[in-house]
Amino acid sequence: MEAKELVLQTMHEAGTPLAAGKVAELSGLDRKVVDKAFKELKAEGAIVSPVRCKWEPAEK
């Protein structure tokens, strides 16, 4: 599974906005991998930030 997919899956399962560190902790991915996935997902508009420093999947 690609890192971006795993990050999104982790965020969906959590059901609440998460910081990158928490996503790394829950998914088992390295923080640098999560940060890179976040950057790509933000550029694609796949995640949004409802609260400062926390992210959740965008509604589609």
What is this entry, summarized?
This protein is α+β, with helices and mostly antiparallel strands. The chain has three helices and two strands.
SSE ordering: HHHEE
Q: In percent, how helical is the residue content?
A: 55-70%
Category by helix and strand content = alpha+beta
End-to-end separation: 21 Å
Structural description of this entry:
With 60 residues, the protein is α+β, with helices and mostly antiparallel strands. The protein contains three helices and two strands, in the order αααββ. It has helices spanning 3-14, 20-27, 31-44, and strands at 47-51, 54-57. Strands 1-2 form a two-stranded antiparallel sheet. Strand 1 and strand 2 form a beta hairpin. Helix 1 (3-14) crosses helix 2 (20-27) and helix 2 packs across helix 3. The protein is globular.
What topology emerges from the helices and strands here?
Blueprint: H1 3-14, H2 20-27, H3 31-44, E1 47-51, E2 54-57
Antiparallel strand pairs: 1-2
